[in-house]
Amino acid sequence: MPHSTAHNQPAPAPSSVGAATLKIDDRTMELPIVEGTESERAIDISKLRQETGHITVDPAYGNTGSCNSAITFIDGEKGILRYRGVPIEQLAERSTFIETAWLLIYGQFPTRKQLSSFSGLLTTHQMLHEGLRNHFDGFPNTAHPMAILSSMINAVSCYHQDVMDMEDDETFESAAARLLSKTRTIAAAAYKASIGRPIIYPRPDLNYCQNFLHMMFSLPYSEHEPNPDVVDALQLFLILHADHEQNCSTSTVRMVGSSGANLFASCSAGVCALWGPLHGGANVAVIQMLHEIHDQKITMKEYVQRVKKREVKLMGFGHRVYKNYDPRAKILKGAADKVLATLKVHDPMLDLARELEETALEDSYFKDRNLYPNVDFYSGIILRAMGIPVNMFTVMFAIGRMPGWIAHWREQWLDTASRIARPRQVYTGQTLRDYVPMDQRG
Ligand code: SDX
Fold first, then answer.
1. Distance between CA 348 and CA 290 in Å, rounded?
2. How many angstroms separate the CA atoms of 39 and 31, rounded?
3. Which helix (H) or strand (E) holds 381?
4. Using a 6 Å cutoff on CB, does residue 125 contact ligand 1?
5. pLDDT (tens digit, 9 = 90+) per residue, 116-169?
6. pLDDT at 162
7. Distance CA 181, CA 406 (A)
């Protein structure tokens, strides 16, 4: 049943608030200035090349807006993060991952009926086609779970041709439910395959998070009963990772989707972008960093000196947008204590992380560069407490980020004016020259 029209609109256009004057040689031109609902301003250069023959250049796009979006708002200076206008702190406290996923994708809180129907769809689509289960045997058990996840997401679409030609919102909802639900099943199956254990079928009586833990830790002869505190910690982890506006992997999903590529292909590309250690792979790099400090008995002051000498980066610190404490890191730091206490787990890595943060933030090198803990600094501590192996940490980030990728893909899909993304460049290579025959090449 298609949802109310409020769910089917592309991002509204920003308002015009004036113009900037650009002077090139003896010419001047007016460039429109637009303003978003949170008073962010941008200079619209969409007519620049046509009118001046010039392009802009902005490597890594630090100053460039790629789109209008109504999904997530970040104020990096104030450390604010809101999904569809709702503060992350409230969602972390009161929502569930699937309710948050609906909010991100459709822009409104789901009614009880909508949430129940969507949860039903997730249950309907939680299993993998039996033909897909054999794929896991084809990966070596040393295969990285992110490689398995990105390839299996595309493999799933081979069994659901309808996701290729998305015509209407019903097909979209079914594809989104499939992707959200099967990403979780693929992740658990990849883990089981990597440790040579049988892949466990999902259970229809468990919710999203309970089912994931069941598929990760049950055995054919021994049912894993998920600890409610671990389920809550997983819920929190996934909510905090669900979206983050135009980050590297989400921009990848939009870039791939802009060519008309289907939802699965676009999100599979997002998994690959997230894998990098500067992005979602940082949660693994943080734990590796803490282990190195612990095992090699490096003092915090020594490690900070190494960072200042640029021998190493302080992984889990710094952010392109946040020039203040990442609000997600603040929540995860508080939750880490609580999760470890309820699970009666003592993790020396948490003490190390806290000590490292304290030592770093006492040093002007970090404050001068606005370097604070980001979402990855404490997240690994919580994953460890849940019994998730380190090589699955970035997969957990991908499971969390899937609703955001789906929401951004849909927002672009709904925008009938959107065009294929195709940046320009400044060419600095060889100017015109002729072919050189082999015997004249010296
Ligand atoms: C995520 O974009 C998102 O929203 C991402 C994310 C999401 O939810 O999608 O929030 C998830 O990816 C979080 C970031 C995880 N990555 C890490 O923790 C890796 C470590 N951090 C850095 O690599 C870095 O801070 C980035 C990649 C996060 C941001 O890089 P930028 O914006 O390109 O910053 P920069 O490299 O220009 O750094 C500015 C200065 C430099 O010093 P100077 O040359 O000016 O003297 O800060 C320094 C950098 O050397 N610096 C660091 C540092 N991060 C930046 N120095 C030491 N350790 C660090 N971690």
1. 9
2. 18
3. helix 375-385
4. no
5. 999 999 999 999 999 999 999 999 999 999 999 999 999 999 998 887 777 788
6. 80
7. 12
Selecting among 319, 326, 347, 408, the annotated active-site residue is: 319
> What are the contacts of 229-235 at 24+ separation with CB within 8 A?
229/339, 229/342, 229/343, 230/339, 230/343, 230/385, 230/386, 230/387, 231/207, 233/335, 233/339, 233/382, 233/385, 233/386, 234/209, 234/386, 235/96, 235/97, 235/209
330, with CB counted inside 10 A (0-12, 13-18, 19+), is middle
Kindly state the helix (H) or strand (E) to which residue 267 belongs, with its residue range: helix 263-274
User: What is the helix, strand, coil percentage profile of the chain, to 5?
Assistant: 55, 10, 40
Q: Phi, psi (5° rounding) for residue 8?
A: -120, 35
Question: Can 244 be counted among the known catalytic residues?
Answer: no
Q: How far apart are CA 232 and CA 107, in angstroms?
A: 24
CA nearest to 292, candidates 309, 307, 279: 307
Q: Residues in the chain, how many?
A: 442
Q: What is the enclosing helix (H) or strand (E) of 9? A: none
CA of 325 to the centre of ligand 1 (A): 13
CA of 318 to the centre of ligand 1 (A): 4
Q: How far apart are CA 136 and CA 196, in angstroms?
A: 10
Active site (annotated) includes residue 347: no
Whether the pLDDT of residue 4 is over 70: the answer is no
Dist CA 158 CA 164 (whole Å): 9
Distance 283 CA to ligand 1 centre (A): 13
Which ligand 1 atom sits nearest the alpha carbon of residue 307?
A: 57
